[in-house]
C-alpha cells in the first residue's frame, strides 16, 4: 500500500498547488456578501471560496464523528452479543452425555391414521 499513500500525497500536493495559483490570480477580485438585511464589506473571492471549503470540511468531519460513534456503539453491542452466544455454545459443549442407550428390543411399528380405517 505504500504506492497508494504516495499517490494520495501527490494528489494532495497537486490540489494545494492549484489552490495556491487560484489564490494568487484572484487576489484582486472582491465580492460583497449579502444575507437578508446584512451586507458585508468587500471580501476577496479566494477568502469566500476557502471559507466555504473550510465550512464543508468542518461539516463533513462532524458527520464523520457522529457516524463513527454510531459504529462504535453498534460494534460494542455486537461484541457483547457474540460473547454471550459463545459462552452459551461453550456451556452446551460441556454438558455431559446423560443416560445410557437402552435396548428395548425391536422397534414397534408406528400405526398411521390411514391404517386405522
Structure write-up:
It is a single chain. With 117 residues, the protein is mainly α. The protein has one domain (9-92). It is built from 3 helices and 4 strands. It has helices at residues 2-25, 45-93, 113-116; strands at residues 30-31, 34-35, 38-39, 43-44. The strands form 2 sheets. It has a two-stranded antiparallel sheet. The longest helix is centred in the middle third of the chain and has 49 residues, at 45-93.
What's this entry about, in short?
This protein has 117 residues and is mainly alpha-helical.
User: What is the total domain count?
Assistant: 1
Stretches with pLDDT under 50, minimum 5 residues: none
Between the first and last Cα atoms, what is the distance in angstroms? Answer: 76 Å
Total strands: the figure is 4
- Mean pLDDT over all positions: 85
Radius of gyration: 36 Å
Strand content: 5-15%
Largest sheet: 2 strands, antiparallel
Query: Structural class of the secondary structure composition?
Result: mainly alpha
Shape: elongated
Largest beta sheet: strand ordering: 1-4
Total helical elements: 3
H-E string: HEEEEHH
Please bin the fraction of helical residues.
55-70%
Amino acid at each position: 500500500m505504500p504506492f497508494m499513500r504516495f499517490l494520495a500525497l501527490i494528489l494532495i500536493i497537486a490540489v494545494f498547488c492549484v489552490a495556491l495559483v487560484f489564490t494568487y490570480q484572484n487576489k484582486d477580485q472582491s465580492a460583497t456578501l449579502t444575507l437578508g438585511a446584512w451586507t458585508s464589506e468587500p471580501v476577496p473571492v479566494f477568502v469566500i471560496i476557502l471559507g466555504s471549503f473550510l465550512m464543508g470540511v468542518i461539516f463533513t468531519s462532524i458527520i464523520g464523528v457522529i457516524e463513527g460513534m454510531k459504529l462504535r456503539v453498534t460494534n460494542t453491542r455486537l461484541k457483547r452479543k457474540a460473547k454471550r452466544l459463545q459462552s452459551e455454545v461453550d456451556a452446551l459443549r460441556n454438558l455431559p452425555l446423560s443416560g445410557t442407550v437402552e435396548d428395548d428390543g425391536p422397534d414397534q411399528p408406528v400405526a398411521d391414521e390411514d391404517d386405522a380405517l
